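User: Structure with thymidine-5'-triphosphate, tokens only please.
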Amino acid sequence: MRKAPTILHLDMDAFYASAEQASKPSLRGKAVVVGGLGPRGVVATASYEARVFGVRSAMPMAQARRLAPNAAYLVPRFALYKSVSEQVMGLLHALSPLVEPLSLDEAFVDLEAAGAAWDRDSARRVGERLRTEIRAVTGLTGSVGLAASKMLAKIASEEAKPDGLVMVEPGTERALLGPMPVRTLPGVGPATGDHLRRAGITTVDELAEAGEDELVRLLGKAHGHGLYAMALALDDRPVVAEREAKSVSVEDTYDVDIHDRVRVGTEVRRLADRCVGRLRAAGVSGRTIVLKVRRYDFSTLTRSETLRGPTDDPGVVREAAARLLEAVDTTGGVRLLGVGVTGLADYTQEDLFAQAAGERAELEAEEVAETPLAREEPAQERRWPSGHDVRHAVFGHGWVQGSGLGRVTVRFETPDSEPGRVRTFRTDDPELEPAEPLPLVRVVPSSDPPAPSGPSGPPGPLTASAHRGRGAVDGEAQVSSEPAIFPKSRSGKEGGAAPSSP
Ligand code: TTP
Ligand code: MG
Ligand code: MG
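Assistant:
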């Protein structure tokens, strides 16, 4: 393991909710809940103000509404979050070629890779500067953890929340980890956590005390061995740049072609289990299950299925592989079979949430089929989803505050306006149309003087409006006085050059 705390982990604070607050001045400092608003919706995230009431990610929306009846409830705007994420990832790439994104709002960076940092002080400086740049470029806050390993860097950023930086001094890792719950460790999902608890193991110290043999007995060889090392704070996993294929797969070639369909099924199941063993040993989980089949005539095909969220559950991988196999013709015989998992992410509690959301989605699908009435609300939600952008021919840019009974209420405000006024329209008002999100931080082309900021009311020239996505814009958006909505991140180096945040 390295000696200096030069692995950085960044995680944005209350990401979706903060992006909503940055974009909607009237919601700053308020309880905001983002998620599915349909009858079976789940909370994606909540602002820190809403967390005070106990609202949490993955909670059923109905429960959130009971806990925080006065919060603003918004439907996610993924295009916006993705654009902000690209800006953040751009800043990270300016630090090092070794950036490993874990999700939209989170990544590891190896600061030693390009000499951005080499010891405590340089690492801390880079971390602080990064936080300043993120704030300037996106208007949002992110928390940074610095440590000599990925595991500790991630734990540190969690400790740093919100809006902070924590460095784990090399040598202090075990003392820090010891009292923490086993679920803190990568590789301990809900199922493993339960399993360990039944064996009387709840803290990392207890895990270490149990000893390697006991853990192997409890969890199997690869997993037990890996977890024991983590409990001792031994984590050598490198930061892996996203370019490098992130997948784990296993395959077997057979001396004699397999003709028996049942035997093919058994082999696929066995491969799925082996693949999961590898996943767990690597402390990762993945979303896409891949089946590879080479037939008697050497024709090879792969089939894949993407789940709602990452998994390392042998049952889930087995079932997906079996489903994929069903669609493959194996008459004539099979020479090779393989099972892989791609779309890897480090273990996080998100696994649990994703899985829970997946289960709910299935339920939802069934219920919609049975009760046609349930369809109505989501449909309406889609037309004027709460929180989504609109443009009115006279009043300009705003967002849907609510809709129902043929009316839609819009608040007219933009990221750099004052909190705006609310007006109600008929849902079929021809002057009202859906719009694209505005950038959270106004981009002022360096040559132009800042445009006057039009508070509420009909917005002035800076309402860049309906520009689809960010795509084509490369680097400088200085071409026109109408700023691109989401310019590709400016180079991290000129940090602070961006206009002030809210
Ligand atoms: P997180 O980083 O886990 O959470 P967060 O950024 O909202 O809050 P924190 O300050 O604690 O980091 O997740 C990032 C985003 O991913 C989150 O804003 C919304 C989305 N998300 C879901 O959609 N479902 C989930 O279950 C979780 C955990 C997150
Ligand atoms: Mg976050
Ligand atoms: Mg995150």
